[in-house]
Amino acid sequence: MTAELPPPGPDHFAARRTLWWARGPNEPTPTESTPSRQRLEILLQRDTDEAWDAGLNKVWNGLVSGARLKKRLPLSTVIKILQAGWIRDGTWPKGGVAPDPDDVLEELPQDAEFAVLSTTTPDYTSRVTSPPSGIVEGATGGNRTLQAQANTTTLDSMDGRHRGE
């Protein structure tokens, strides 16, 4: 199934997002609880070397090596297996929790100018505003100069000292 998409920009993004969220023709069926999956869940509840050696290590090694699972597992179970392995190899601290995300977007005013980056086309900006007047960037010799309105500060790139001019 191919869809006619608008040119790159906010409408293109909205159309792609709509297609992404639409149910596909090959919607996966829910995973059924099998005896082996129930055994795996029991092993995940125990935090012992015996549980690791009884099968968790094999599943974890398969996951991190890129092997395909023989039977489907819920994502929550896969995450528990990966985390158990990361704790064992020292990648994840025992008792550690993931930090809150720091990439939450703030609400922009409706009339705000913005640039939309596209990951699907070489034309990666759809709308860009120019910088405020009076701000000019330039490079001269070994120095980087940023002139902001009437104030000029030069950063000597060799030793990092600031000097006003």
Helices and strands in order, then pairings?
Blueprint: H1 10-21, H2 35-45, H3 49-64, H4 75-89, E1 135-140, E2 143-148, E3 151-156, E4 162-164
Antiparallel strand pairs: 1-2, 2-3, 3-4
Helix pairs in contact: 3-4
Question: Can you put this structure into words, describing what you see?
Answer:
- The protein is α+β, with helices and mostly antiparallel strands and 165 residues long.
- Among the domains are: 33-98, no CATH class; 135-164, no CATH class.
- Helix content is 33%, strand content 13%.
- It contains four helices and four strands.
- It has helices at residues 10-21, 35-45, 49-64, 75-89; strands at residues 135-140, 143-148, 151-156, 162-164.
- Strands 1-2-3-4 form a four-stranded antiparallel beta sheet, with no helix packed on it.
- A hairpin with a 2-residue loop joins strand 2 (143-148) and strand 3.
- The longest helix is centred in the middle third of the chain and has 16 residues, at 49-64.
Short description:
The chain is an alpha+beta fold and about 160 residues long. The chain is built from four helices and four strands. Among the domains are: about 35-100, no CATH class; about 135-165, no CATH class.
The SS-based structural class is alpha+beta
The end-to-end distance, rounded to whole angstroms, is: 62 Å
Largest sheet strand order: 1-2-3-4
**Helical amount among residues, as a percent range?**
25-40%
Largest sheet: 4 strands, antiparallel
Shape summary? extended
Give the helices and strands as they follow along the chain: HHHHEEEE
> What integer value in Å does the Rg equal?
26 Å
